[in-house]
Each structure stands twice: as C-alpha cells, then as structure tokens.
Amino acid sequence: MTIIQFPKDMKWGVATASYQIEGAANEGGRGTSIWDTFSKTPGKVVNGDNGDVACGSYHKYEEDIEIMDDLGVDFYRFSVAWPRIFPEGTGEVNQEGLDYYHNLVDRLLEKGIEPMCTLYHWDLPQALQDKGGWDNRETIEAFLQYAELMFKEFEGKIKHWITFNEPWCVSFLSNYVGAHAPGNNDLQLAMNVAHHLLVAHGKTVIRFRELGIKGQIGYAPNVEWNEPYSNKQEDIDACKRVNGYFMDWFFDPVFKGTYPDFMVKWFEEKGAVLQIEEGDMEIISQPIDFLGINYYSGGVGRYKENEGLFDHEKVDAGYLKTDIGWNIYPEGFYKVLTHINENYGNVPIYITENGACINDGVENGEVKDDRRTDYLKQHLVALQRSIESGVNIKGYLTWSLLDNFEWAEGYTMRFGIVHVNYRTLERTKKDSFYWYKQTVANNFFEV
Ligand SMILES: N=NNCCOCCOc1ccc(-c2cn(C[C@@H]3NC[C@@H](O)[C@H]3O)nn2)cc1
Fold this sequence. Notes:
Layout: E1 3-5, E2 11-15, H1 18-21, H2 34-39, H3 57-71, E3 75-79, H4 82-85, H5 95-110, E4 114-120, H6 126-129, H7 138-153, E5 160-165, H8 167-177, H9 187-210, E6 216-220, E7 222-228, H10 233-256, H11 261-269, H12 280-284, E8 290-303, E9 312-315, H13 330-344, E10 349-353, H14 370-388, E11 393-399, E12 418-420, E13 427-429, H15 431-442, E14 444-446
Parallel strand pairs: 2-3, 2-11, 3-4, 4-5, 5-6, 6-8, 7-8, 8-10, 10-11
Antiparallel strand pairs: 1-14, 8-9, 12-13
Helix pairs in contact: 3-5, 7-9, 8-9, 13-14, 14-15
The structure holds ligand JSK.
GO molecular function: beta-glucosidase activity
Family: Belongs to the glycosyl hydrolase 1 family.
Protein name: Beta-glucosidase
C-alpha cells in the first residue's frame, strides 16, 4: 500500500464552463454565441445536441454549490458567457447577466469556496464572429473591454482570473481541423486566430496590472504528451513537432517572447506565415501569476512521411482508453509537467482540468464509475511525482463537477463526478465523487 501525500497548502477544486452547463440560452438577456450557431448547424454535433438546456445550471447553481460544499473543495472554476454580459459583444451591458454571476460568486463565497473565473471558454458572441471573429484584431479590443468590465465589477470577490481556456482548441481545432465552432479549415486563419488570442491575453494582463486589481491572472492551455516510439531521430523530431503544436506554440510567446523557430519554419513550409505587428510579442510576454494546465491524455507516436500536418502518426500501444477513445496515459502527465518546469521555469501551476470520460449510468441510485476513480488515482500519482520533482503545483481541479455538453460529442460523453439526467436534470453523486471528497478532506490517498 502506498500513501500519496500532497503538500499542506495544496488546493483542490472542480471545473465547469458556461456553454456546457448553464442552459437558459435564450433567457436573462443572453445574446447568441458561436456555439449556439455551430451546434444548430446540421452534422456538427452528435445527435444535433446543443446547449439550450444543458445541465440547467443557470437556474440550479445553488444546488450545484451545495454539492460542491459537500465535496469540500477550495476552488470552483467556472466561465463567464461573454454573450450574457455583452449580448452583441460590445456596446450595451446586460445587467441581468452581471446579476447572475454576482449571485453565483456571492453564494460561493458564503460557502468559503474561491471562484476561479475563466473569461473566455469558447462562447464568442456571434455578432463578433459576423465581423470576422478572432481573425479580426478588433475582437481583441472587444475582449479587453469585456475583461476590464469584469475586473472592475468583481474586484475583491474574484481573485483568480483566467484569460483564455485552451487557445489551441480555439485556434487550430476550431479553424484548421474544423471540429469546433466556428468550424473553419484554414491553417493561415488558425495561425492568425492563435496570435490574436495571445495578444488579447497579453493586453488583458497589462490592463489587470494597470487597474491594480487584487488577485492573480493566468491562462489555461491544453497540453498532451507525444512520446517517440523509438530513439530514431525521425520519431523524436516528429513528436517534437506535435508537442510544439500543442505546447511550444502557446508557451514560448508568453514565457520567452518569441515563437518556436522550428515550428515557424515548419508552418511556413505548409503555407502559413506569422502576421505579427510591432509590439505584439512584448504585449504577449507579460509575466503571469499562474499557469493553468489542462491534461487528459497522450501516447506514443512516430514519423510517417506526408501523414497529417507534421509527418507524424499516433501509434496504438495498447493502453487502456476512456470511453471517448483517449489513452489513459498518466506517464504523459508527469512528462509534460516536468517538461514545462525545465523549459519555462518554476511558474506556479494549477491543474485547471484533468479527468476521464467514463459513461457509466445510474443503477439503483448509484454510479459505480471505478474506471474514473482509477484514472484520477493514476494521474494524481503522476502529479505528486511532479511535485516531488520540483514542479510548483498549487492546486488540482478535476474536469468536471457535472456531466455536461462535451462540444462536438454533445451529451454522449460524460466527464462528471456527478451524473446528470438530461431529461430531469437530476444530479447523482458518482462513486468517484465520494473518493474525491475523501481525498480532498485527507489531502492524501492510498494506492
Ligand atoms: N491537427 N490536429 N488534429 C487533432 C484531431 O482533432 C480531432 C479532435 O481533437 C480534439 C482535441 C482535443 C479535444 C479536447 C476536449 N477537451 C475537454 C474539454 N476541455 C475544455 C472543457 O470544455 C472540456 O470539455 N479537451 N480537449 C477535443 C477534440
């Protein structure tokens, strides 16, 4: 038996996002988002699912907070729907939207739960998309106006701010792969979006400092680990490119003030050229207070000529998989965290997302999701190993509190430690909820 003990100041939490849980898409003065448009475009989301109702958390947030209170967490990471604050992206402010988030935050604080607020978790106001979205640099200024309003409105209540969730998903997944909203397939466009997101991030950090807002600010990239199948240089280089796609491209500009040259050259060969304006890199590389890391999976890969964007193929090495088909690969969690520490310094890190898609249902009022508990155990061992190795981990927030709208997979894929019946919106605490509750209370667990 092994005791996995965390530092006494370790923080624990759960995470969600506005479009995935709130519902009430046409209530409270909310404007249309690109995910309302995308999810209602035939063929984009499994079963034609959308976020009109989701988990009903817009009306059930007090019940959700009672569940978090029972869980005993320190943090609740949620996101603000920009279209609830500025229904048209800019211009008139929607007071009902501000009121909703004040009620949410006030209730959290009454329960002693710290709000960790993500300003952008993919639900761009459609009105801004209609003017070019993140390809248009004017959207940067619109985001800055939205962020400044939120900083001033929630000064003293919210002390942990995240500018962007998973800029790789917002840029490349959504504008090159096309699997997420707005669903484009254009590498140059994706590169422009990625750059503009980073500029918006940097400008927001600068404004946060200028306003003297009490608290901390960071961003939350998603990362994966691609391990070379062999020690052949071609396999090592192929995996370096894919890791560079998910990590270096979004870390180097913030931590080093430059894009990774090997990736710039590779993208140029693919026809995509960086379009940087004077001062952009200085803006992007503003020091941040913490780094959010979203890790789910990784695996083994190797060189394959003309395969995909990077002459790289994933190799099925026989790892167990979650129900969404991703490898269960805790070693990759350890590798990615030590890689970050070695290459970007001892920046304070919150794990802002880690969890498993396990689709077990309710039987006799229970959900026996042992595979999720096993996933959490294995990844928390990897996390503790990284702490032992000097990585500056400040907290761990599991994705997710609730089963919710999993983007293009709709409601078919369940990541929650609490089951949601999407017909009745009934919440059922899963076995993993009780395991996580005990781990939060003890700050250790046994393997
Ligand atoms: N060129 N590239 N090809 C790649 C092949 O693309 C095919 C699809 O890829 C992906 C990659 C990554 C994801 C993903 C989902 N989550 C979970 C959410 N995180 C934020 C929170 O909202 C959670 O719901 N994290 N990551 C989805 C699809």
